[in-house]
């Protein structure tokens, strides 16, 4: 069976992950990967930190530290947050010489094949600092939607803004530093050279992308496609090895494809193989990306062009699963106002199964959604925990033991449950929201079934086991307890004639009456740690109002 490679957007190492990030690509990718494993599919779920981003430089300047120190501290914090949330990755691979060699090998092959062109471009320039401004080093107004935007891509509309296209540019490091423009000679990859293949690729995948992201792809293809910077005059990143651009760095965004090939190779663990082995087309892996809407241009189009530029060497992504923004108490996450909650803090206060379930239920899949402490409490205890534990008590009260026969009616109901779970987990309709709602629907039904003395014991056990298996990719600690007790949580379509009895693991109880009375305020009471101003995924780096 071919491997599935699940890739979550690579987090920028300029801070930790807050719950807005976690509710996006990281939890969604984890739940999908766990689902595939439960169906017997070999899966590698991976990502790596994005150390070369200009946001590392701008954040380090603001915090009075060095980019190197910020990367090290942030990577440790990100890895701790992923672990605390139960994200099933091997870990974060080191951004070391092996990584840099993989990146250079990937881009040098394209250079030697003649894919790049030399261009003279006009870049914003910080006059006093004497530095070129791009991406996280510059802010201004999006030329497409007129919203406030960083360089590179607009968070609001998703459209790119290269070079001098950003209106009213200002330095993010020193807003008082006058900005002028200077010419620079760089290498680019012309995206228009791949229009026909891009058009065919998206035609083959029509209906597989979420609506808003698909609309953006249509808008981008309806315009002249930009030329992708390959090198940039900068002081941080991977040095470009090309004689035409001596002293420049590789443009940070073009590291994405070799970066995830490297992280896949590292996560699989067979380091005797070439770094790009698992992405080679002959292995026919299925690649699935999880990222945010403001990352559609990069992961959906730009990175795809870099794969296409290698000819038929690499597998192309099957689909991109894109999320919208997750707000906090009705407002954007904001580091400057301490309006955020770090993931690691939240799971230290509320058991992570309950946090994961609430984030799955409310994740911003098709539109922006809102996190509130009140809603988390309601989901965790009233809607999920209390009825779940009541069902566990009702099963225990029946004194179930041994192997129990299942009636045809019980098998039919279990099969119907399983079908609904598969429809929520499987591509292209993947939706944690619907899976979580399915858990709540069947939880209420099974409580009634358990209370009915005429319900066959085997039917009840089979259907509760199906509920537990369907919820397992989200409720990871509960699933681990059940598996340790010998419960089969595979999502097999085969419905057995008999089933072993088991105890349904209980969910954590509400800690206190004070917790039940807790309500949100405009500013959350979990304040951020002083590590840094926050972090984002590639395409979702730290911005002040995130």
Detailed description of the structure:
With 546 residues, the chain is α/β, with parallel strands linked by helices. It has two domains: 4-345, HUPs (Rossmann fold), CATH 3.40.50; 373-500. 40% of the residues lie in helices and 15% in strands. It contains 16 helices and 19 strands. It has helices at 19-38, 54-63, 67-84, 97-112, 195-204, 211-221, 256-268, 296-308, 343-349, 352-362, 373-397, 408-425, 432-451, 457-471, 476-484, 513-517; strands at residues 4-8, 43-46, 117-126, 131-132, 138-141, 148-150, 152-153, 160-161, 167-171, 179-190, 227-229, 231-232, 249-250, 286-292, 319-323, 326-328, 369-371, 403-405, 498-500. The strands form seven sheets. The protein has a four-stranded parallel beta sheet with strand order 2-1-14-15, with helices on both faces. The protein has a four-stranded antiparallel beta sheet with strand order 4-3-10-11, with no helix packed on it. Strands 6-5-9 form a three-stranded antiparallel beta sheet, with no helix packed on it. Strand 7 (152-153) and strand 8 form a beta hairpin. Mean pLDDT is 92; it is low at 513-546.
Explain briefly what this protein structure is.
The protein contains 16 helices and 19 strands.
Keywords, separated by commas or semicolons:
546 residues; alpha/beta; Rossmann fold; 4-stranded parallel beta sheet; 4-stranded antiparallel beta sheet; 19 strands
């Amino acid at each position: 069976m071919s491997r599935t490679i699940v890739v979550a957007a690579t987090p920028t190492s300029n801070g930790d992950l807050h719950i807005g990030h976690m509710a996006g690509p990281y939890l969604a990718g984890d739940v999908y990967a766990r689902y595939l494993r439960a169906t017997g599919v070999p899966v590698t779920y991976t990502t790596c930190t994005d150390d070369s981003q200009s946001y590392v430089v701008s954040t380090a300047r603001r915090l009075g530290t060095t980019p190197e120190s910020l990367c090290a501290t942030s990577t440790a914090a990100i890895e701790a947050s992923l672990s605390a949330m139960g994200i099933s990755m091997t870990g974060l691979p080191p951004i070391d010489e092996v990584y840099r060699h993989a990146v250079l090998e990937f881009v040098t092959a394209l250079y030697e094949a003649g894919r790049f062109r030399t261009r003279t471009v006009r870049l914003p320039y910080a006059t006093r600092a004497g530095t070129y401004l791009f991406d996280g080093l510059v802010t201004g107004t999006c030329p497409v939607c007129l919203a406030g935007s960083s360089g590179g891509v607009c968070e609001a509309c998703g459209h790119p803004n290269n070079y001098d296209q950003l209106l009213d540019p200002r330095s993010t490091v020193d807003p008082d530093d006058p900005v002028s423009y200077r010419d620079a000679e760089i290498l680019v990859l012309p995206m228009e050279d791949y229009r026909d293949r891009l058009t065919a690729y998206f035609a083959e995948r029509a209906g597989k992308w979420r609506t808003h992201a698909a609309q953006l792809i249509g808008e981008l293809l309806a315009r002249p496609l930009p030329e992708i910077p390959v090198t940039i005059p900068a002081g941080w990143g991977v040095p470009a090895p090309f004689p035409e651009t001596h002293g420049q760095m590789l443009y940070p965004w073009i590291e994405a494809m070799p970066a995830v090939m490297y992280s896949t190779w590292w996560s699989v663990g067979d380091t005797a193989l070439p770094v790009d082995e698992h992405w080679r087309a002959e292995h026919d892996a299925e690649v699935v990306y999880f990222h945010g809407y403001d990352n559609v241009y990069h992961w959906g189009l730009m990175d795809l062009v870099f794969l296409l530029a290698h000819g038929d060497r690499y597998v192309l992504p099957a689909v991109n699963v894109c999320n919208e923004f997750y707000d906090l108490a009705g407002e954007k996450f904001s580091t400057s106002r301490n309006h955020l909650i770090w993931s690691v803090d939240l799971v230290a206060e509320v058991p992570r199964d309950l946090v994961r379930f609430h984030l799955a239920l409310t994740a911003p899949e098709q539109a922006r959604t809102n996190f509130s402490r009140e809603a988390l409490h309601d989901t965790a205890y009233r809607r999920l925990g209390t009825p779940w534990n009541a069902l566990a008590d009702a099963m225990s009260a029946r004194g179930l033991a041994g192997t129990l026969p299942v009636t045809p009616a019980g098998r039919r109901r279990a099969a119907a449950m399983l079908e609904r779970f598969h429809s929520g987990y499987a591509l292209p309709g993947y939706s944690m929201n619907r899976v979580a709602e399915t858990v709540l629907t069947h939880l209420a039904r099974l409580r009634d079934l358990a209370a009915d003395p005429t319900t066959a014991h085997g039917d009840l056990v089979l259907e509760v086991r199906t509920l537990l298996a369907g919820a397992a990719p989200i409720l990871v600690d509960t699933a681990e307890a059940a598996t340790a007790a010998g419960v089969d949580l595979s999502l097999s379509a085969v419905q057995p004639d008999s089933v072993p009895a088991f105890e349904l693991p209980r969910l954590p109880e509400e800690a206190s009456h004070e917790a039940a009375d807790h309500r949100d305020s405009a500013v959350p009471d979990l304040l951020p740690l002083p590590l840094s101003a926050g972090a984002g995924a590639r395409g979702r780096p730290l911005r002040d109002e995130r």
